[in-house]
Amino acid sequence: MKILGFFGKGGTGKTTLTALILRELVRRREGTVLAVDADANECLASVLGADGTPTLSDMLQKYKRQREESPELTGIDIFQNLFDSLLMEGEQDGYEMLIMGRGEGSGCFCAVNDLLQAVFEKTVEGGTYSYLLMDCEAGVEHIARKTSGKINDAIIVTDASKVSLDTLKRIRDVASEVGATIERYYVVANKTRPEMLEKVKEAAESLGFKYLGAIPEDPNFTEVAYQGKTVFDLPDDSPAVEAARKITDQILGA
Ligand SMILES: Nc1ncnc2c1ncn2[C@@H]1O[C@H](COP(=O)(O)OP(=O)(O)O)[C@@H](O)[C@H]1O
Ligand SMILES: [Mg+2]
């Protein structure tokens, strides 16, 4: 079981890279894959063509109701049951999808974070998945609150701008503050002009992070999005797909 978390400043391409690597794992039949959309905007599901999947937030509403209706059952039993069905409903062609969804604001998430952590550890980390890909929103503290905070590979997506490169160090600092354990840090450049890649590589290496290479600007994304298609419809020789293939090789090889 390998947990990959995708991080970086908004708009740098976290969702895109998560989807491209998932596509690669599914194509290679690299074991069972769970995709976790941990961003409240829920973009990953639509890039993958898995929108309509019930979300964890929906499930929490059901949990609250069942808790009131069945006081004889323990919270953890109800939660585990609902969580198992949620994963079943998230079954896609070649992978499973779990959407965290919205709900933080209403406070209902905070109340059940302990349950979620317990169930997440048992079902997901001790479970049957070979790969868990998490498209993370704000950063490590957000994900650590809901899961155990154990991540094998943190993949930070960046361009060559200072604001984006600054997130590299911040992610590591926040991870240590919240007690998240991250084994390896990787950096991938996205939508970055070739002459600026050296700067990204230097920034990564100065922190001891491994630079995995770059995903080029790929016009096929616009085409696919325009036609309402998904990442699975990108041609195999699409520049971003080819670059993601090499990046996947490096991640799997580690
Ligand atoms: N390599 C690329 N080539 C072309 N468009 C890209 C590329 N990477 C990302 N995009 C586009 O940029 C936008 C933001 O990417 P996204 O992956 O959603 O960023 P994030 O998840 O980090 O906010 C999307 O519209 C996406 O299609
Ligand atoms: Mg995103």
Automatic annotation (TrEMBL):
UniProt GO molecular function: ATP binding; ATP hydrolysis activity
Highest taxon, organism lineage: Archaea
GO biological process: negative regulation of cell division
Name of the protein described by the UniProt record: CO dehydrogenase maturation factor
Any one GO CC term of the record: cytoplasmic side of plasma membrane
Boundaries of every CobQ/CobB/MinD/ParA nucleotide binding domain copy: 8-231
Pfam families referenced in this protein's UniProt entry, alphabetically: CbiA
